[in-house]
Amino acid sequence: MNQTGSMWTTVIMFVAIILIFYFLIIRPQKKRDKETKAMLDAMKKGDKVVTIGGIHGTVVTVKEQTVVVKVDDNTRIEFTKGAISSVVNKDGAKANPNKKKAEEKKEEKPAVEEKTEEKAEEKSADNTVEFKVPEKEDKE
Predict the structure, then answer these.
(1) What is the pLDDT of residues 84-126, one digit of tens each?
(2) Whole-angstrom Cα distance, residue 102 to residue 72?
(3) Domain residue spans of the chain
(4) Architecture of the 44-119 domain
């Protein structure tokens, strides 16, 4: 009976480790792959992109397997779609499929910025700065 209990404990631990790996590694990776595929499928002419090598440019042509990116005035480079790391908005921020979350974060930031501006105004209203120099004590 002792060996049977030990065997069940081993099986339960093995299943627990498999579940942990699934939820911490496999599932998030599948989600990232799905988002990347959606981003690449939605890519169109005129989008600003960044490659995995760090090259910034504008999409000129989207083909079935490749993308032609305009890097400079007369420089165009053809990349495989998998080489595109991210699509960047005109503001310079990465395109976010969860726009609601991004908008909520933007609404939170101004409240913090207003507080810092108020503090800055309070400091600038009094343009005097005081420095206190400690007096030296005579050592006898």
Answers:
(1) 999 987 655 666 555 444 444 555 555 444 444 444 444 445 5
(2) 31
(3) 1-42, 44-119
(4) Roll (2.30)
